[in-house]
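Why does this matter for the project? Reviewers at the last site visit asked to see concrete outputs rather than summary tables. In response, this paragraph embeds two records directly. Each consists of the residue sequence and, immediately after it, the corresponding structure tokens. Nothing has been edited or filtered.
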Amino acid sequence: SKLNALFAQVESRPSIVAAMKRPAEKTMSWNEYRARFITGPRVARGVEVSQEHAGPLEKAAASGVPTSVLLAIVGVETSFGANVGTHRVVDALSTLAFDYPPRSEFFRGELEQYLLMTRVESLDPLAPRGSYAGAMGIPQFMPSSFNRWAVDGDGDGHRDLWNDWADVFASVANYLEAHGWRTGEPVMVSADAADAR
């Protein structure tokens, strides 16, 4: 069967299990996060992305999610696509589904969602790259999030969160709206380019 042929090429990665046991994310105060994410180079890249992809950004923002928020999400998640991950998503999800018992049920579900996603999007399941936890694309959607909230922002018939900025911005806006975004409400703490050092 196709699945047997696919899984014959999947590799279990002990380094992924090790990474899950000591995640890069740790509890940080806002000041620690602020220093990490509001940097001169990151702000400059955000300005470039906003200019290079102004049309898709403005179109997605018409939903009510401001351009600044859409940019902030992709800036924090992957430095505007500079770091989308290097692991084959199928390897990451398979490793965690079968070799990481504390979260195996969750990752088996994500693996199933990934396989469905690759079929719907006509992707080679061995090709997409992502994080060690299986998060994908510029906004780092997990497969279940991709299947529920990724949208085709430019009408080309595909949802591409790795290369298509219209899809990226529209999908982030759709995700936030689906999770209760309310247009016009205040942001807890604003960041300003002048804050970057």
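We now turn to the second protein, recorded in exactly the same manner.
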Amino acid sequence: WIETSLTWRQRPETSVTAYQTLHSLFSHLFRFDATWNPAPVVHAPLLAEVLWFGSVACIGLVTLVWLRRLARSWRDTGRLEPAMLPIALTVPVAILASPIAEDYHYVLTLLSFLVGGWIALKAPRSTRSVLSLLLVALLLIGLPLPFNERLVEGWSALLFYPRVYGAIALWLSLVLVARSTGTDRGR
């Protein structure tokens, strides 16, 4: 997976809107290819790389911090919710970091939605904002929104990555769910 994530990102066809990932989004905006992406905002492939590495590093770092806290919480309390949450938290991260992700990849997020929704509904400190964010993520990922367009030009490409935004919202809601489980107290 790591080798594919690093080598497939160089393929020009990964910049199309059919692949709903951070790499595809940044490549579509900043990497020219006469066949696959003839109208980016600007041809700045280094910027696409920096944005991808930076966003994956930030998401990965935050995820690792919460995975550590969840592991500690599970060890201290023995509760089942912190044991399920790490798997749910890593699913959207894997999809976002991948060079390609199509509709069938996003089916994997069902586990994340079930775990996140269950914990959010049970948590005494759960807020409506977490549930609202989960709902927004579900709509962006689950609705049959038009995104697989052949030639999308310039900044309008931002409108054709709903599943990327849904995966980010799902990931963020799971981080907030992890926070609401009590793993943030004094640690």
